[in-house]
Design brief:
Immunoglobulin-like, 7-stranded mixed beta sheet, 8 helices, 6-stranded mixed beta sheet, elongated, alpha+beta, 4 domains
Length: about 650
């Protein structure tokens, strides 16, 4: 619902800017052509009527957006009312009451500048970082436009220059310049010994990230080596991808460990020139084991190695991937599955189990959708009556919609967190996998065919899995069914009303700005700022933390907090009433407002970012910082 409203508002804003230019021009002619005052006044009145109509329609649209929560409309509403609606009303009153041409021109000038700025700010989200300053600057520009009207009334030739247009562009241009400078300043500052933007943590008793390690002593219960190297991956269709691999394959080898046991993984980089780290996605490892270059470690360059040691504290489906230049290196293959099994249940595991990555491989023109490396339909034999467990992992940058048909199935876990009281959902129910997210789905194999299809309308493909007793049945045609909703699924106790030590508001926006040193349209700002200028969320160990996340942009943003899992309290004001919805990667669609809560029980400096790595590389990154933690590491680029 909200994405069309956002688009409508953007189109209306463009129309307002166009009519504002016409209004300003006609306001100037009202004074420059005294011999034709009546005709000029009529034309100006028509332009003002057009402005008023567009502003009114925008207000209606903004009101509809506000049904999803006031956090979606705060800046839209304040800028629209104060900069556009009020001056427009004054100008219309001036015309209706027959004020002098000079006073009408002054009111129309202010309306033109205010209306234009109210529309321009929609495309420059950096006003959200300092809305009061943006409003004051805009009001000053409107005041200057009134002075311009007086100047024109005096008949000066210089007053006929396009000052009104310059005024409308000067204020946002200054805002963009300040945002760029803010970013550059934040990038160059030394925050607690490293490049992470935060507060200066130097204080008595401060801890370094280097101290927050997994167990350094003791013989590990499981040892693995991951060797990163350039290589080739052949897809099922025969297409070959210029890839990056772990141990010569992609996805990398599945790491299967037991809950509560010490794990040791040695990362070796053979020739990946970008450098490599390993992030254990969804596992709440100690901070030094988190694998974020420039924050928890330095990237491992060719010829180097790094050892990770940690004890996974809960069973579930997780995955690992590099966190160095992720927008390129994960897509090319540096990822794999990490399965943590319950120490008591693992020996009894009898289900036909399969880890399924939904991945978009780099193609010559468009990405190539696949299940693992299967970019065309594949078949597998499963005996009728056998229990089946599918562990879905989305390793691509986009949310993926899975269609599972041929059998009713139960969602048993979300992001590695067990679902309580889950019951079978009808055949054909779709699962929306956030980028980086996971679902576990269980069913008993029927006599017929079970099909898992990947809906890739944006990137045409025919990735599908067909399970049948003979292993010969083709997959069913792609269908579209109702969407599974974790908000109401399963049973459990609703979140209790409680006191929170910290509360934060996070607004996700898109618009024009400077990302990676270039001026372009980005879908990446957090509260009007781009990394590294996004303020850190500061907490103390033991704090109960509540966060409201509002997506005011046109694109889905899968928000991923490292080192912690969060519980969803509500979505667009509707409380979570099913099984406690625990997640580490929450897809926030356009117009959605989520409230989540977590306990700050894992000290460190933790990334909190959009798991669409392209958005992260453009600046949709912030950090959760514990007040007494510092980092000695530095990085010369965004640690995405």
């Amino acid at each position: 619902m909200f994405e069309p409203l956002f688009l409508t508002d953007m189109v209306l804003a463009l129309a307002v800017m166009t009519v504002a230019m016409i209004t300003g021009r006609r306001a100037g002619r009202l004074l420059s052509r005294p011999a034709d005052t009546q005709r000029a006044l009529l034309r100006l009145t028509l332009a003002l009527y057009g402005m008023a109509a567009l502003i009114l329609i925008r207000l209606v649209v903004v009101g509809l957006i506000g049904t999803g929560g006031l956090s979606l409309t705060t800046s839209r509403l304040s800028f629209e009312v104060l900069l556009a609606a009020v001056p427009a009303v004054v100008a219309m009153v001036a015309v209706w009451r027959g004020w002098s041409p000079e006073r009408i021109s002054m009111a129309a000038h202010a309306t033109a500048v205010g209306g234009a700025l109210s529309a321009i700010w929609l495309y420059i989200p950096f006003a959200q970082a300092s809305p009061l300053i943006a409003l004051i600057a805009s009001l000053l520009a409107m005041g200057m436009s009134v002075a311009l009207a007086r100047w024109r009334a005096a008949g000066s030739r210089g007053s006929r220059a396009p000052w009104l247009t310059l005024l409308s562009l000067l204020v946002p241009a200054i805002a963009l310049g300040l945002a760029y400078q803010d970013n550059q300043t934040a990038m160059s500052m030394d925050w607690g010994g490293g490049a992470v933007p935060a507060h200066d943590h130097h204080s008595a008793g401060a801890r370094s990230v280097e101290q927050l390690t997994g167990p350094r002593d003791g013989t590990p219960d499981a040892r693995f080596t991951l060797t990163a190297a350039q290589g080739k991956v052949r897809l099922a269709s025969g297409r070959q991808v210029d890839a990056l691999t772990f141990n010569g394959q992609s996805p990398g080898p599945a790491i299967r460990v037991l809950q509560g046991r010490l794990v040791e993984v040695t990362l070796v980089n053979v020739d990946v020139r970008e450098g490599v780290t390993v992030h254990w996605h969804g596992v709440d490892v100690p901070n030094a084991e988190d694998g974020v270059p420039g924050v928890t470690q330095e990237a491992v360059m060719p010829g180097g190695r790094h050892v990770y040691r940690f004890v996974p504290d809960r069973p579930g489906t997780f995955w690992y991937h590099t966190h160095r230049d992720s927008s390129k290196t994960v897509e090319r293959g540096l990822f794999g599955a990490l399965i943590v099994e319950d120490d008591h249940q693992a020996p009894e595991r009898t289900a036909s189990e399969k880890v399924v990555f939904t991945h978009l491989w780099p193609g010559a023109d468009d990405p190539i959708p696949a299940f693992d490396t299967a970019d065309q339909p594949s078949k597998q034999a499963v005996a009728a009556g056998e229990p089946v467990l599918l562990r879905f992992v989305n390793s691509s940058e986009e949310p993926q919609r899975l269609h599972l048909s041929g059998v009713a199935y139960t969602v048993t876990a979300i992001d590695g967190n067990e679902v309580q009281g889950g019951t079978p959902v009808p055949s054909g129910t779709d699962l929306l996998l956030a980028a980086g997210g996971r679902y576990d789905a269980a069913f008993t194999m029927p006599d017929g065919t079970v099909t898992v299809s990947l809906d890739t309308a944006e990137f045409p493909g025919n990735a599908a899995l067909a399970f049948s007793p003979t292993g010969q049945s083709p997959p069913a045609a792609l269908g579209a069914g109702p969407l599974f909703d974790p908000l109401t699924y399963g049973t459990g106790t609703p979140p209790a009303q409680e006191h929170y030590d910290r509360t934060f508001d996070i607004g996700l926006d898109d618009g024009f700005g400077f990302a990676q040193g270039r001026f372009n349209y980005v879908s990446s700002s957090i509260n009007g700022r781009l990394y590294p200028a996004v303020p850190m969320l500061m907490v103390d160990e033991g704090d109960r933390v509540k966060v409201r996340i509002s997506n005011r942009s046109l694109i889905d943003h899968p928000m991923h907090l490292h080192g912690h899992r969060v519980r969803v309290l509500s979505r667009n004001g509707v409380p979570s009433i099913g099984s406690p919805w625990w997640t580490d990667t929450l897809n926030v669609a356009p117009g959605e407002v989520f409230e989540v809560a977590f306990t700050a029980d894992n000290p460190g400096l933790w990334m909190d970012h959009c798991h669409n790595f392209k958005h992260a590389s453009e600046g949709m990154i912030m950090h959760l910082g514990y007040a007494d933690v510092t980092t000695p590491y530095t990085e010369d680029h965004i640690p995405e």
